[in-house]
Amino acid sequence: MDILTFIIVTAVLAGVTYFVRIIFLSHALVFLYVALMVILGISLGNKAGESLGEFFFADRLGLIFYVVLVIVSLLSAVHYIKFVHDRRVVPSSVALHNAGTILFTGAIVGVLFTSHFGTLWAFMEATTLGASVLIYHNRNQDSLEATWKYLFVCSIGIAIAFAGILFLGLAAHKVGHIDFTFAAIKTEAPRLNPIWLQACFLLVLTGFSVKMGLVPLFNVDIDAKDASPSQVGASLSSVLMNAGFVAIYRFYDAFSGTTILPWMNRLLMITGLVSLFFAAAYLLKVKNIKRLFAYSSMEHASLVIIAFSCGGVGYFAAVLHLIMHSLAKSSLFFQVSQMHRIYASKMDDGIGSYLRINPLGGLVLLLGFLSIIAMPPSGMLITELMMFQALVAKNFWWLAVLILILVLVIIYGLAVRLLGILFLKKPLAKINTGGASPYESILQLGLILAVFYIGLFRPDFIVRNIELALKALPL
């Protein structure tokens, strides 16, 4: 299967799924789509590094995050079956959600494999439409407000990014006609006016910050993860964050051979530091578990951008950190769904003794907590150490100390909430122990163990593919 055919099938299957009102069949269509994703992945893997026509290419970075997308999509589909059963979701809502899932996932596939700045922007806009359908799922006041906020602010962000692409077009026009593919722009970038390139990158970073969960457009991302079902929050905190990173990376890579490289690194560093500060400040006060994990995702997005801005080993650390964060954070969001079924609450003061009431789910929460705070044997400890290594190599000692302080503040905020949920006895309302789901927890535990495995053994095929994906960047 080629990528263009897959995009067409995505649109057709999303349309068909919308009209299917038999719940079992609706779920089956999503699993069929995931199977098609696996087939496409095998096809693209055999063509790694090759062009796939005018608008697509089998990019290694895209392939890395595509594997993560397939894994998260499959587990989200599995968890949604249980969600539908427990919440007695009506067939029309299931149909709309599953159609939105296919549209959202297909748009991310387009972001990962497009080789053209124009189509990159179009696919990123499509993720907004797909995500909005998913956020509105619960059809209450909170989800409606979050959906409209997400649509409005994301549209502003995408418009800002489009303005950046217009500046790039203006720069290209000054030197004659240039194809808007990544390769063509990268080749011609040293001839382009650096002022226009700086304006382009600033606007693109600002616009796509809404997808990655960074300053300045991070608030709607937090609200969306809170108001949507937990499996949707998992996707927004993992695969959509990855897509936002890839979009920013494409512009960074294209301009990396020009004189604005140091300026881009400073801008990324400032964005990461400010985002990390806001994540720490908000996380200390929040009591809503879903928002807690949402701000934790903002923290990790900040660390990724900071590491990437340092270059060298920081490039590698950023990509590997995103992979592991996607797996760990997805498992935690999936687990929140069980917690809500048991306690009918997502506030930390309404959840207690979780390790005793749901031992397997509590184990997932405990190990997931250790993963996201980068405690051994979490693989994220390795990537965060690489980040500090990159900072020291650049003689950013004072920044390393500041980042360490902010990270410790975040760890404290997470520990106070999550350890209380796991171990403290609290005056609780009636508890539904039947809400625990061992098979769901086993799947989530598998994701966390994968994070531990990557950190302990750093498999050669992962390391090799990341190095090949980043080899074009300056040292």
Essential attributes:
mainly alpha, 475 residues, single chain
Describe the structure.
The chain is mainly α. The chain has a domain of 210 residues. The protein has 20 helices and no strands.
Assembly classification:
single chain
Percentage of β-strand residues: under 5%
Note the gap between the termini. 36 Å
What profile does the largest beta sheet have? none
The total of helices stands at 20
Decide which structural class fits the backbone. mainly alpha
Mean pLDDT: 95
The tally of beta strands, per DSSP, is 0
Order of helices and strands: HHHHHHHHHHHHHHHHHHHH
Radius of gyration: 21 Å
Regions with little confidence, pLDDT below 50 for 5+ residues? none
Helix content: over 70%
Which shape, going by the Cα principal axes? globular
